Amino acid sequence: MLHSVPPWWVASDSASTMSLVRSRWLDLLMQGLRRGLRSGRRARVLGIATAWVLASLGMAASACAAGIEWRLQTRDPATGKVRVTVEKVDPKRVGVVAVDVWNHHWCKTATMRVDAFVPRINQALEAARAMGMTVMLCPSDVVENYAGHPQREKVLALPKVVVPRLVDATCPPVPDAGGCACGRERCAGNYGWDGMHPGLRIGDDDWMPDTQSDVYALCQAKGLTHLVYVGFHTQVCLLGKPMGLRAMKTAGLHCVLARDMTDAHPGYDPSRGFTPDLNTEQVVEHFEKHLAPTIHLADELARAGHWEGQRLLDPVRIAPWGTPMRPHLFEQPVTVTLTAPLQPGADIRYTLDGSAPTPRSPLYKGPFVVTQTTHVRAVAFRGGRKVGLESEGSFARMGPLPPKPDVHVGDLVPVRNVGFGHTYGGVVRYSAGALPPQKDRSNEGKPLKTGRAVHAHGLGMRAPSAVAYEVRPGFRRFVALAGVDENLLDVGNGSNLARHPSVVFKVFVDGQQAAASPVMRMSSPAWRFDVPIPDGARVVTLAATDAGDGSREDLANWAEAGFVVKP
Q1: Pairing state between β 94-99 and 407-408
Q2: Which of these, 505, 509, 504, 503, lies nearest to 541 by C-alpha position?
Q3: Whole-angstrom Cα distance, residue 469 to residue 537?
Q4: 90 forms bridges with which residues in the sheet?
Q5: What is the DSSP letter of 214?
Q6: What is the pTM of this model?
Q7: pLDDT over threshold 50, residue 165
Q8: 69 to 54, 301, 471: CA distances (angstroms)
Q9: pLDDT (tens digit per residue) in 190-210
Q10: Integer Rg of the chain from CA
């Protein structure tokens, strides 16, 4: 077995392995001869060394013939009892298929759970390549955004083949928790992903198939008989996509799910103990009962001598999982769950004040409730040593709904009005695609859509921009509902672009910041401004900034914005 020999014996094919073994043992033989000659034991040393080399060559050949061993886990469909069988596979006949490792998801928690797996998937694909396996990266509905990449173009050059239907791969309906792991403050759907996760490493010799016929043609061309699936979201994409596990099983491929490198289309209901991790466990068990065996891929690679166990890979998982650039906005108290399922027995230490966790930080013992704007940081420790990457979660509590304004800003003449473009002598030359603030319309002249609603009054800006108003006698408070413009969702549900808008709204009174929103994203609830205006104040400025990541698609709406004059 491969794990019984030194790791330098493992190569991409038996010929290179034998060559490497001969070279290595020749070095050892010469070292032994030199020592033996100096001690006068030439004949004995030669005999022992020769026998050692021959025996070792036989072991190496046996290892190459045996290939890698999978410990395949299935379950009895009726009782759920686990069954484990062992299968030896030639790595050259194995394809590893990574499905939908996207750079975005409409659910912020789902996005971050993909992010959490990427370091682990990278290490697995690195090992798979080293062992001679074929790596397939399949981002499905955004695959053609890789047009011109060799990994995609060479797939299209494969000979066309007819895909047989050899196996009936039907199974009962899979548990589906609804797709949003943010709980009560559920995300609204949009399709902002436009590629694979930026941290996912793409190998020069990788492939990017998309259809069942793409994958089957590649398997035929390279003699692949086994496919190991990693990726997201198990009961939707790995199951239902045309390159997914069920489709390829019907074509006669031996398909296996890597249970340590997949995540279900999640749900979260802490009131009944239902977490995204539990959802994934249930879906994996369903696969094991009705569709395909699973393996713990990291364990299999470790047994083969191809897994570096000292790397920090797995962050603590947070549910719901907002971040500073995509915070979780809430009205009612939020129950937060921390987990580290791939680090069993580890202690999770966390802080709620933004400081770095240490082995002396509070020990996570169970879900806790967040009632105010909070920044969570968490790390898994074992024996006082970090065993995973740090996580952070950002939670921003919204205030109560403000009253409607008595005076709308659109009915006032601003004393300052600047925006995205170039300014010469106080005159703004607006950039292409940007206009001055638009009254009661988006900056593109469309309905004022924000916070999942259409509003009759307000201003539509293009960040970065600012508009200032003189404070009139009687102005008591400034009020508004601020958010990213959502007309983009009318075009392909925001396909490819909905992940880009990121705006921070700010209110200044006489040059001093009086209030600010967190980073606002597509389909976020509108941020609620209700800002008192001090006696003697002269100017109120409304600013929309680009959140520090550029201004692409940063259309910002100040809905129902204006001044309250009543005491």
Answers
A1: unpaired
A2: 509
A3: 11
A4: none
A5: H
A6: 0.87
A7: yes
A8: 25, 9, 75
A9: 999 999 999 999 999 999 999
A10: 30
